[in-house]
């Protein structure tokens, strides 16, 4: 079942937006997506990220916050966003803090949206509104369509070892990883560590392919990383979030 609030939210979003755009939004390729749309896709068992750059196009400094609005979402999915160094729970719709940009400054690292399909195939749309704290009507929006596909990691080439992103992400009580070791691989490990590099968990993958679970209930909230190691070679390192 899909939750649809498109008309209401677009009317509400219009109350924020002026003709003159002092906040310009761009995708990772620097294409303008101001008051427009963008689409990102990924496996339904991973977290899909949307990275958005924003620029102060005015002649003075701006303190910019972000508001999240669900336009159309698939039941069983969740979405969050990270802003100004913090990642928030799905229930947070407005960033508690602002990013200050001087005239002409571009911020390319402080915002991304996270979408966890939890195995549900299909598309959900989330609107993000960037607005000036002093003058909230000075704002710009982008509607991101997250498309989750039914790719199965076990269908990957037998010549390549692969691991999924954790699901769900952010994780509350546990995070699951789907993996598949290459035909000639001897041993696979999943190493989870914090921002300081301290190892939180060292998991030996028990089979050639499957799903391994990492219990997070006793781990403090925050940003962590996990490395996928096969035969003592680090194949990838990615980010995960724990949020109780």
Description:
With 244 residues, the protein is mainly β. The protein has two domains: 2-149, Immunoglobulin-like; 153-242, Immunoglobulin-like, CATH 2.60.40.1930. It is 4% helix and 51% strand. The protein has one helix and 20 strands. The chain has one helix at residues 6-14; strands at 2-4, 23-26, 36-43, 47-51, 53-56, 62-74, 78-83, 86-87, 99-101, 106-107, 111-116, 122-132, 139-149, 162-163, 174-180, 188-193, 199-204, 209-215, 222-230, 233-242. The strands form five sheets. Strands 1, 3, 6, 9, 12 and 13 form a six-stranded mixed beta sheet that branches. It is elongated and about 60 Å long. Residues 4-19 have low confidence and may be disordered.
Q: Any chance you could write out the topology, listing elements then pairs?
A:
Blueprint: E1 2-4, H1 6-14, E2 23-26, E3 36-43, E4 47-51, E5 53-56, E6 62-74, E7 78-83, E8 86-87, E9 99-101, E10 106-107, E11 111-116, E12 122-132, E13 139-149, E14 162-163, E15 174-180, E16 188-193, E17 199-204, E18 209-215, E19 222-230, E20 233-242
Parallel strand pairs: 3-13
Antiparallel strand pairs: 1-6, 2-5, 4-11, 5-10, 6-9, 6-12, 7-8, 7-11, 12-13, 14-15, 15-18, 16-17, 16-19, 19-20
């Amino acid at each position: 079942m899909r939750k649809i609030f498109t008309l209401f939210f677009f009317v509400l979003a219009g109350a924020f937006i002026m003709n003159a755009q002092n906040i310009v939004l761009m995708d990772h390729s620097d294409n303008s997506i101001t008051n427009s749309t963008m689409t990102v896709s990924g496996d339904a068992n991973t977290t899909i990220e949307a990275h958005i750059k924003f620029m102060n196009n005015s002649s003075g400094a701006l303190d910019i916050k972000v508001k999240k609005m669900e336009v159309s979402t698939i039941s069983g999915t969740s979405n969050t966003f990270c802003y100004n160094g913090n990642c928030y729970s799905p229930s947070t719709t407005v960033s508690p803090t602002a990013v200050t940009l001087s005239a002409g400054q571009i911020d390319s690292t402080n915002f991304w949206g996270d979408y966890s399909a939890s195995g549900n195939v299909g598309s959900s749309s989330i609107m993000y509104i960037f607005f000036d704290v002093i003058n909230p009507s000075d704002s710009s929006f982008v509607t991101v369509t997250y498309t989750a596909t039914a790719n199965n990691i076990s269908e990957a080439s037998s010549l390549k070892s692969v691991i999924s992103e954790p699901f769900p992400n952010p994780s509350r009580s546990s995070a699951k990883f789907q993996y598949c070791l290459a035909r000639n691989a001897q041993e696979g490990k999943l190493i989870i560590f914090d921002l300081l590099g301290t190892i939180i968990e060292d998991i030996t993958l028990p089979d050639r392919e499957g799903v391994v679970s990492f219990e997070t209930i006793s781990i403090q909230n925050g940003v962590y990383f996990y490395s996928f190691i096969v035969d003592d070679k680090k194949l990838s390192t990615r980010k995960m979030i724990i949020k109780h």
